[in-house]
Amino acid sequence: MNQLEALTMIPRQSADDPGRAGLLDIIGMAIYALRGNWMRSTLTALGVIIGIAAVIIMVSVGQGTQARLDETMARLGSNRIEIMPGSSRDRGARMGADSSFTLTSKDAQSIRQRIPGATYVSGMIRGGSQVIAAEQNWSTQWNGVEADYFIVNDWKLARGDFFSDADYRGAATHVIIGETVREKLFGDADPVGNVIRLGRVPFTVIGEVAPKGESGWGGDMDDVVFVPLETARRRLMGQLEMPPGTLMRITVGTSSADDLAEVEAALNELLRELHKIEPGAEDDFRVRNLTELVGARTETTRLMSLLLAAVATISLIVGGIGIMNIMLVSVTERIREIGLRMAIGATPGDIQKQFLAEAMMISLGGGVIGIAIGVGGAMLASRYGSLPIELNLQVIGLATGFAVATGLFFGYYPARKAALLDPIEALRQ
Predict the structure, then answer these.
(1) Is residue 139 within 8 Å of 184, Cβ to Cβ?
(2) Domain span at residue 131?
(3) 315, exposed or middle or buried, with CB in 10 Å at 0-12, 13-18, 19+?
(4) Domain match, 233 and 355 both
(5) Would residue 29 count as lying in a domain?
(6) Domain assignment present for 157
(7) Residues 136 and 202 both lie in one domain
(8) Helix, strand counts (H, E) of the chain
(9) Whether residue 211 sits in one domain with residue 134
């Protein structure tokens, strides 16, 4: 900006106070000054842009992940403990988990009788089979379950009925299917009352469970078929070569989350007693508290959010330092202009407000661009990166406030320095 431009851009004085420039004049002068060095202004705002974009993406992904975890916990069923067989050994070689059949219906019955906090207990066996309806067929997983299974896993009915007590006692050839199986076999038609075959065994569909979607581990929870436990043992389990009374899993539900730790400890103690495991010997079963598992994932998400927040904070600080640096350079370059303005009536307050306005406009402009990039980046992460996001308008507003605060904080010193210049010394430059 040359001397003539500096003189013509002197702010108009307020009618109430001749020593004070109008707000619109200060903003206009700031825009004029920044427009003359738009490339430098853009590069200066880059740190703020990166910081704000990182904040938006970090919070969106963090909150989306937490919401996904909450949904997963709700789908899996709350206040739930899973008991599974442990590993076995073959000629000294340790086999993998679930390689032995160490759980039985007697274990499940003992849990019902001896652990008061175990409100719901269901044994379960499972296997895979081709399911056939007329000319349609689909390969799916069947689960042989007891009555409490649907309660503790929070399964609801979309149509039809659950199994009756007579179905469980009499090993009835009744089946309840998931939404995916219904779509593959019947399309949009009502499956209730139709006959399907699991392998070679005919079953009558008496119900369809409400959809749950994807599990926390990526599986389709609706690609499933349920039959009574005794039915599975008599008609479907022969191919699995399992001993009589064997269970692949026992699911235990409590009335309150506060009881989980106590029930889990009691389960470990009871099963070691029932399986006659000597003190110090390795368990032949595994007990998994799903609340603790989801809690661990939540803690991981929280730590990642803190890490990203640290990165975003550093970016904002770096951006603020860049603003301070470039404003100090601007003050040095425009000393003569500052002197001319003071000489014809501009007050130190006018000079300070102008440079402060320039710093804040750089940071605010960077904040607006950062918000746009952050929202766009979060959308792309959701679409192409399969990351759950949850945009929060409060966070976007907070990010805007941070951008303005950055300009105010880091722009104050250069603006103050410009305001304290001696007009006479400035005109000598």
Answers:
(1) no
(2) 101-283
(3) buried
(4) no
(5) yes
(6) yes
(7) yes
(8) 15, 14
(9) yes
Amino acid at site 103? L
Dig out the tokens for 48 from the structure: 């703020």
- On whether residue 166 sits in a domain, the answer given is yes
Judge whether 82 lies within some domain: no
How far, in Å, CA of 19 to CA of 207, rounded?
82
Does residue 384 share a domain with residue 343?
yes
Question: Given the DSSP bridges, would you call strands 201-209 and 174-177 parallel, antiparallel or unpaired?
Answer: parallel
Structurally, the chain folds into a number of domains equal to 2
The rounded distance, in Å, linking the Cα atoms of 297 and 416 is 49
Q: Which of 283, 313, 336 is the last residue of a domain?
A: 283
Last residue of one domain, picked from the residues 252, 283, 314 = 283
Q: What is the pLDDT along the chain (429 residues), one digit of tens a residue?
A: 444 444 444 444 444 443 345 666 666 666 766 666 777 777 777 878 887 888 788 778 777 777 776 666 655 556 788 999 976 555 444 444 555 688 999 999 999 999 988 999 999 999 888 999 988 999 999 999 999 999 888 899 999 999 999 999 999 999 999 999 999 999 999 999 999 999 889 999 999 999 987 765 567 889 999 999 999 988 887 656 677 888 999 999 888 877 888 898 999 999 999 999 988 888 889 988 866 666 666 677 677 777 777 777 777 787 788 888 888 877 777 777 778 778 777 778 777 787 788 887 888 888 888 888 888 888 887 777 666 777 777 777 877 787 778 778 888 878 888 877 777 776 666
Residue 63 CA, distance from chain mean position: 5
Are the beta carbons of 168 and 139 closer than 8 angstroms? no
